[in-house]
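Item description
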Amino acid sequence: MINKPILKKVGVIGLGYVGLPLAMSFGKVKNFLVYGFDNDKFKVKSIERGKSYISHISSSKIKTFIKKNKVSDNFSFISELDIIFLCLPTPLKKGNKPDLSYIKNCIKIITPYLRKGQAISLESSTYPGTTDEIIVKKLKKKFNIGNEFNIIYSPEREDPGNKIKMNLIPKVVSGYTKKCEKIANFYYSKIFNNVVLAKDLKTAEFSKILENVYRSINIGLINEIKTIADKMNLDIFDIIKVAATKPFGFVPFYPGPGVGGHCIPLDPFYLTWKAKKFGINTKFIKIAHQINSDMKIWIISKMEDKLKIIKNKKILIIGISYKKNVDDCRESPSLNIISELQKKGANVSYHDPYVEKIPETRKYKIDLKSMELNKKNLQNFDCILILTDHDNINYKLIKNNSKLIFDSRGIFKTSKNILRV
């Protein structure tokens, strides 16, 4: 008699930029059934209809996923699952303090449905100790962790717009016990080619924060160097190009209008907050954040130097999302700069092939829609400000039909009517 393969039921809570790709990857695994959960009914309905709400994920892939798998906002299905992956946001509260309410509320909601033999893996970026303090502490009251129930931490490394396939990115995993670690390795090795075992939960949590602190500080450094090079009438992009030929001891980072997204502007402050409890002042993190935040002031001051006055100037912004080739506007420096220009009385418009309308965020409510990029429209503006360097923008059209261009991404060489900012 042939034994029927055991069907593994996998749950992913949070179907955003991290959770949806993870759910879709598990959905391809033979003998795996995926349940995607989100309390956003729009996301659930969109997936059920085979419609994608994330620009770099095609609707055809959503349709393939939903043929075999399920999505719901009903968390009672949690009891049917073998493992649950939590892909939840970890924003900041006032004073740059960690906001773990999404994780706490999720655990509170799903705990009544949890049973012996299951596992939970947290993927959210957070400070070292979060998994112990929030998940282990809560579920210890119901289960013997590592025996009756398994707890895992595995930091997400999703990078929207990056063409590297997800399965080729090494996946860091950790477990509360060795048994938890083995379960983590079993599931993650189904969709990742290289699973990296961290020593413990806190080491894995810290590794994610370190990755983003590293990027934040190096971007801050290069943004500061940009201002020095500018004073010396030198091109920072030419300088980086030459320096990057060194085959050791140097990794190129590039300047821009600031930092955005769900990681770099936020995650370092999780470490700052935690470090305070040990009496440590994270100076580098604060300095980098300040430099990156001040880029908007520097860019606008460079514009004022050239234009003399911002009020009533017609300014076209190129690029709203926080990075190239994605539709993600979270913490985008473009929103900050638009807001500041509007406060100064500028008449601001924008073009972004990925962002049809500027979404309302926690900080900004900007009522603008993307305008068509054509010769007539371009010639109608006093200046163009390039903030996000999407690949599918006609830069030749911009160059040939613009009176004045301010370029924060190194698209063009400096000339009489093109200034690097």
